[in-house]
Each structure stands twice: as C-alpha cells, then as structure tokens.
Specification:
heterodimer; A: D-Maltodextrin-Binding Protein, domain 2; four-stranded antiparallel β-sheet; 33% helix; B: 337 residues; mainly alpha; MetI-like fold; 75% helix
Chain lengths: 536, 337
C-alpha cells in the first residue's frame, strides 16, 4: 500500500470515528451490551485463510446464513444449541433429495441487505463460490460438508438456490449453519472488486456488505468493535439490544474487575480459577457448558520410543493424577473424561470417558512388563497460549511420573510455533486439545485419529488402517444401529490403542451480570448477541 | 543550528540501516511459523504451504529482505497479520495513544521527582532525604504492572473514584475530531469539556503507574546533580559574596543542576514509551506497546519490524530534541564542532 492510500485510509477512519458518536445511536445504557474479552477480530471478512477466530463473531452478527440451529434448554436451565434441529434463517424452507445429493433452498422474498437492496440467489451463489475459492480454512470448513467446487452451487431463480453434494454427505446441511457460508451483498462487494482481487477481499476485510441482525459502526483493530442493530432484519426475531460494544482488554484481572464493578456486562476468556470464584459468588452469574466435541489429552507419539510400545502408553494412562488436574488445573471448570465403568458400553458420543484411573502400582507394573523397570526420560510439550491450564496440568503429570521413575521435562511452545510443532510430529508427549464445530464423533476422529489424512491434529502420528476404515464407514453409514455399533467400536479401539489419553472436556465459560438473559451456548463458542437481553 | 540538525540526521542514517537489518534478521530467525499460525485450525500441510506463498514467506531470506527494504523506502511497512491492517496505519493510529500516556506519566514523574530530589539535595541526610530515598526505592521496587493492578483494585474496584480501566475513553463519550491525536487536547479544541475530563480521568491511573517507574532515575539524578552543583566552587563563591540563599539555589544552583536532568529526560521518555507495554495491557490502552507484545507473541514480522524501526526513528528524533533543549538550557553547549 502506498503512502497516499494509507493517508486515505487514515482520513477515512478518522471520519468514521468522529461521526459515529455513540450517544446519537443508542438511547441509554439499557440498550447497550458491553462485552470484554482478550482478543478480537483481525478482519471483518470470515472468508479468508488469514482471518482469525474472532472474525466469526463478526460473520455471525453482520451476515446471515441460509439456516440455523434450534435452541434447547438443559435440565439445569442452561440454554444450548440443538444439533438435531435445523431452522430457517435466510431460507424459509428447503428440500433435500432422497439420497442427500441435492439441497434446494427457497429464500425469504422480502429479505434485504443493510443498503436496502434485496437478497437474491445470485448473492448466495457468489458468496458460496467465494468461500470455496478462498482456500485455507474456509475451504476446509466447506469441505466438511463436501462442498469444494463453485459448480456445485446454482442460482436456480431469483429466490431459489441449489447445492449439489455428490457423496450425499450428511454434514452438508449442518455445515451451512457455521459462520463460513455467509451471504454477502454481491453487487456491493463487486463494486470494490479489482482485476487482481476479484473477490473484493481487500475491501471486505475493512467493510461490511451484509444483511444480518447487526452491522459494524466502528472497528478499531486490536481495540474495539461496535455493532448496531439492523432494525429491518427479517430473518429472525429482532434483537433486544440496539448496540453491542466489544472491547479487548488483555489483562484478565482487569476484565474481572470491570465485570465485578458492573462496568462490563459480559466477560469471556477468564482463567478457570476466576470463573470458579465468580460462580461461587452471587454478584455475577457464570454459565459453563462442556465444549462440545472438545477434549484435552495427553498425547504420545506412537512412532517414538518408548511410546511405540502400547504397554508404556497404558502405563501413562494409569499414572496421570486425574483428580488433581480437575481440581488444581481446571478448578472444576471441566468434565472428567476418565474413570468409566470398564464393563459398561461406551456412549455413542465423543468425547467419552476412558476406563482409566490413577493407579501408580499398575502403572509401575506395566512399565516393568514393557521393559522399563527403571523408567525413562521424556519431554511434555504444551501450547504457551493455553498455559493457564495446561502448564499446571503438565506439572502435575510430571510429579506423578517421577514417582514411577519417569523423568519428564516440561517445554512450553509459543502459540505462533505450536502449529508448526504439531505438523512436525516431533513431540514425544504433548498436552493437546481439539474442538470441532460439527458435533459428530466420526468428524472429530477424522481430524484427530485418521491416519490417511494424518492431519495436524494427529499429533500422535497414529496410523491404523483398521481404525481408518471404521471412521470412513461411520461418515457415510445410513443404518442407525450399525452406526452406533461402529462409533462404539471406534471408541473402544482408540481407548485400547491409546495414542491419546483423554483427561478432561473443558468448559466454555461466560461470566455476566445477573440481569443479562438469553445466553445460548453455540458450537462456535462465540456469544450470539442476537438473543441477549437485559431483564426489566 | 540548521546545519547541526542536518548533520545529526545524517549521522543517524547508518544506525537506522543497522536497525533495519538486525530486526529483519532477528525476527526471521526466531522460532515460529506465521504461515502455520495463520492457516488456522484444521490446517493441512497444503493449506500452510498456500498461506506461506500468499504471505511471500516461501522466498529466500535475501529476496524477502530486498522486497521489504524496497517497500519501506516507499513508506510501506507491510501488513500486520494480527490486525489485518497496514503496519503504518496501525502505528499511526496507536502512537498518539502511547504518546499521550507517556507524556502525562513523564509530567507526573517530573512534578513529583524534581522537587523531591531538590528538596533532598538541599537538606542532605535529613528526614526529607530519607523520604526521598524511601519513595524512590518503593516506586522502583514494584513492577509497574503490579502497581497498576493495585491502583485499579484500590481506586477503581474498592473506592470507585477512578473510571473503569477500559482504554482511552469510556464508551459513552464521542471521540473528538482528530487534530493532535491527544484525546484530552482534541476534546478541548472541539469545545467538548465533558469528553476532555473523561479522557483525563482515564489517563490518571495508567499515567501514575507508568510515572512511578520514572520517579527513581529522575529524583536520584536531580538530587545527585544538585548536590554536586551546590558543592562546586562558584556556589561557594556566590555564598561567600553574600548573595541571598534564594538566588544561590535557584539562579545558580538549579539551572546548572537541571542540565543532566534534561539530558536524561529524552532517554526516560523513550524508555517509558517502550516500558508502557504492560501498563497498556492492564488498562486496555490501544497503544503501540500492547501492539508490539501481540506481534511478538504471534511472530507478526511486519508489525515487529515496523515497531522497532519506528522506535529507532523516535529515539533519534528525541535525542536530537534533547540536544537542542540542552543548548537552550546551557549556552556553553555547542555541537557545531
């Protein structure tokens, strides 16, 4: 970018900032939600590979998807999204062919974008093409529903849109609820497209062209994003809050103080210790839901001695101080993933509890049996950006392993280096985690245990042809009981071969003022401000 | 004077080139693969390779360096991965925030440290001297982020006197049109006194936390310099001549004692600008310090390089400013030879 362009950008952002005085937009504090968190979006466009996770928050509010999930209430009153229910958002109704290869959507006829222009099938087509052409993560997410080529998408007429999924992937429909296949105002975006940039990525990174429940009125990267309600939104119930202010505050202590002083309404991403303490007090409420399809493991590289010996891996499973990790690393803000009844069947769900418990005698015996009566030396790696919980966890494991003669050092890898470290598959032991948006066990296994694609999350380098065949079968199994048996079979196999030892399923925690209502846990873990309201 | 400024600028060029080379090499040899990081979750080896090519990181280092220098000459510092914005835009937007905070911190430090140091120097060994030493030691002993958290706890959380530590301006105030980039000044210029007061309120705690950090060097320097001056011959002469104590202390003593203090002011300012990293984190301050931390944690090359180059330029300019100020304070100082 040249200097003059930079000056233009600066001038423009100053203009936006100075004309967007908040009091003119919101009537009172009652109509505004102030949320604080550590990180924020690095772009307003979710459909680029370099977009960070927080751009999904923007996509969620500023853009619509064709369909959304329903919401259900758990026994304890917590509201969570319902994976089994798909409801209209931009599409009012849809048909899916018998074999699942053709999905036809009918768009809401009076839906408009923020600039007032109507939403048409050509916009959906353009947006979906854009998602698969973007490459990187957007393409991978679209690929989860077997949507990888623009010619799979067709604008049949002004308000009818069709997707062809040749393999009849059952995840195609739920994949449409994720914040990747969003609907963009193609006419507006194309005005800013250039020959080098046919998808207007430059412009959409800093501007919005959506039709969602909110629009961005102010964005200061690294500091703040302000959403204002779109009063003409027709694709759902009009949100209660006129304005949402999300500010980035790096210090967790400050975020907690802001919440306790009632200057912030919602705080995300506090350390579990703070959530546990806040949950004890009555001043604010804490809603915690175990993150779906998420698990924290102790993972061992099955190609590196001594972990190529299954007995050693089993010994490790008996040597982990599970209860101490639950209480001293996660402060109870996690679900235990150990100590299942060894005689009971596994559930048809993932994560599932392992049948292992802390038993150092057994661990020692297994090590002796494996030929390591005096133990060995190794290293546990962990992701520095998750050190708040993973470091105490690794240290507790280190202490226990010392008791059976295994001498491990703990190595923290900076967040920026973690992905390359995982790709190298060079870590003998690592604290790893995975969290999937689509809550199907075989989808989770596909990314974490599947040897054929050996994805970055297969830190253990597990390559097991039999397991791969079972996972592949589960992805396309039509018969319900065969599917259930298959998932139990996979679970049993990964619990026996043990490339990863399940430890806990961590919580998605949110702390908020007592008068904040309507919080729903979503698979993407972001706050959906569209349903948030303030008690009268 | 102008020739001297030009000469100083010219002498800064080699150091600037050195800084550019060293930052480039260091930031590219540090562990960490931005491509892997930005390919994001569910990355595959192919998508990482694709991201790497997109970011130009697959080129050999010398080529990357040439591209970088070529862009830099045109004022293009590259694009930050974190913010998605050109680095120059980011720095230009964030620098005034850090500058304003640092300047207020420095003013606070001067207002407290200089009188304290002078007072202690005039009465060496007295209780005032001990108070000075105690204050200075205490201020220097606590890490600034800790002081910041304590101040937040006491004045915001417990007493409720300070506004919420949520950045430069509470959410409800309009941002004044940007003239100087200093919110307090811009708001006054725009005639919006309520906003000016709010912006000043947001500044108090972070400025004090940061200013405490500079108390020690300033107070010590003032005290030592004043004691030195008061012990010198011309003061003895002035005293012997029967000049009033006031004239001896202020006209002869203070002015001469100020010279080394002014000398280190520039250094302290640039030092504070770098040191407010943690303060900015704690107070949610959208300045360059928090920007740099984020950049280092994510191996955001362009942002790190931009930050370091900008700091180098600032140091050079500040030193120049200090030299000029020196000539005004002390007519004996000449740089023209």
């Amino acid at each position: 970018m040249s200097i003059s362009a930079t000056v233009r950008t600066l001038g423009l952002s100053t203009l936006i900032a100075s004309t967007a005085a908040l009091p003119a937009i919101a009537q009172s504090r009652e109509d505004v939600i102030i949320a604080v968190g550590e990180q924020g979006p690095n772009s307003l466009d979710t459909q680029t590979p370099t977009s960070n996770d927080y751009t999904r928050l923007v996509a969620l509010h500023v853009y619509d998807r064709l369909v959304k999930h329903g919401v259900k209430t758990l026994d304890d009153g917590t509201r969570v999204y319902n994976k089994d229910e798909v409801l209209p958002e931009l599409a009012t109704n849809w048909e899916i062919s018998e074999d699942g290869t053709e999905l036809t959507f009918h768009l809401r006829e009076n839906a408009t974008f923020h600039d007032g222009s109507p939403v048409e099938a050509k916009d959906v087509k353009w947006s979906f093409d854009r998602a698969v052409e973007a490459g990187g993560f957007p393409l991978i997410q679209m690929g989860a529903g077997s949507m990888t080529e623009p010619d799979q998408f067709e604008a049949v007429d002004e308000h009818t849109f069709r997707i062809r999924v040749p393999d009849g992937n059952k995840l195609a429909l739920p994949d449409l609820t994720t914040p990747i296949p969003i609907v963009i105002n193609s006419d507006l975006a194309l005005e800013h497209a250039t020959e080098d940039d046919p998808w207007a990525t430059e412009w959409l990174a800093n501007n919005t062209a959506g039709g969602g429940a909110y629009d961005v009125v102010r964005w200061t990267p690294g500091n703040e994003i302000v959403f204002q309600r779109n009063d003409d939104w027709k694709n759902g119930d009009l949100p209660a809050m006129q304005m949402v202010v999300y500010r980035q505050i790096a210090s967790a202590g400050t975020r907690r103080a802001l919440l306790e002083s009632k200057d912030a309404d919602v705080s995300v991403g506090l350390p579990p210790k703070d959530f546990a303490e806040l949950a004890e007090s009555d001043a604010v409420k804490v809603v915690g839901v175990p993150k779906q399809s998420a698990i924290v493991n102790l993972e061992m590289n099955v190609n590196m001695p001594p972990f190529d010996n299954p007995k050693v891996r089993e010994a490790m499973a008996y040597a982990i101080p599970y209860d101490a990790i639950m209480s001293d690393a996660f402060y109870g803000r996690a679900a235990p993933m150990y100590g299942a009844d060894p005689d009971a069947d596994y559930p048809v769900a993932w994560p599932a509890k392992s049948p292992y418990q802390t038993d150092l005698k057994k661990a020692k015996a297994l090590l002796t049996e494996a030929g390591y009566p005096d133990g060995f030396e190794s290293t546990i790696y962990l992701d520095l950006s998750r050190a708040t919980t993973y470091e105490p966890m690794a240290l507790l494991i280190q202490q226990n392993l010392a008791k059976i003669g295994v001498d491990v050092t703990v190595e923290k890898v900076p967040g920026s280096n973690w992905f390359s470290k995982m790709l190298e598959k060079s870590m003998p032991m690592a604290v790893t985690s995975f969290h999937a948006w689509l809550d199907w066990p075989e989808y989770h296994f596909y990314w974490t245990y599947f040897g054929a694609n050996n994805s970055v999350f297969n830190v253990a380098s597990q390559e097991d042809d039999e397991l791969d065949a079972m996972i592949q079968k589960a992805r396309f199994e039509a018969d319900a009981s065969a599917y259930d048996d298959n998932i139990r079979g996979i679970t049993d196999r990964v619990m026996t071969t043990l490339p990863k030892i399940p430890v806990v399923q961590d919580y998605m925690d949110v702390a908020m003022q007592n008068d904040i209502e309507g919080y729903v846990y979503w698979f993407h873990t972001f706050l959906d401000f569209r349903t948030i309201s303030r008690a009268e | 004077m102008i020739a001297m400024i030009a000469k100083r600028f010219a002498s800064a060029i080699p150091s600037l080139i050195g800084v550019i080379i060293v930052t480039f090499v260091i930031s590219h040899t540090l562990p960490g693969d931005p491509a892997a990081y930005f390919a994001g979750p569910s990355a595959t080896a192919e998508s990482i390779a694709e991201t790497r090519a997109r970011l130009g990181l697959d080129q050999p280092l010398p080529i990357q360096f040439l591209t970088y220098v070529g862009d830099l000459v045109q004022g293009d510092m590259g694009r930050s991965f974190n913010s998605g914005q050109p680095v120059l835009t980011d720095l230009a937007r964030r620098l005034p925030a850090s500058f304003e905070l640092t300047l207020y911190a420095l003013v606070f430090a001067i207002v407290v440290a200089v009188p304290l140091g002078l007072w202690a120097a005039v009465n060496p060994g007295s209780w005032i001297d001990h108070l000075c030493r105690g204050t200075v030691t205490a201020a220097a002993a606590f890490p600034s982020f800790f002081t910041a958290l304590v101040l937040i706890f006491v004045f915001y959380y417990k007493l409720g006197w300070a506004p919420s530590p949520i950045g430069r301006l509470a959410i409800y105030f309009p941002i004044p049109p940007s003239v100087t980039g200093f919110l307090t000044i811009d708001a006054v210029l725009a005639g919006d006194l309520a906003t000016a007061r709010a912006a000043l309120g947001q500044l108090i705690l972070p400025a004090i936390s940061l200013g405490l950090f500079a108390l020690a060097p300033l107070a010590r320097m003032t005290r030592a310099s004043m004691i030195g001056v008061l012990g010198s011959d011309f003061i003895t002469t002035a005293r012997a001549e029967g000049l009033p104590r006031r004239t001896v202390l202020w006209t002869y003593g203070f002015r001469n004692a100020l010279l080394p203090v002014v000398n280190i002011l520039g250094m302290i300012f640039s030092f504070l600008l770098g040191a407010n990293v943690l303060i900015e984190q704690v107070f949610g301050w959208p300045g360059i310090g928090s920007y740099a931390v984020e950049a280092v944690l994510t191996s955001d090359y362009a942002a790190i390089q931009g930050f370091v180059v900008m700091m180098a330029v600032l140091y050079i300019l500040l030193n120049l400013g200090v030299d000029i100020l020196n000539m005004i304070v002390d007519p004996r100082v000449r740089y023209d030879d």
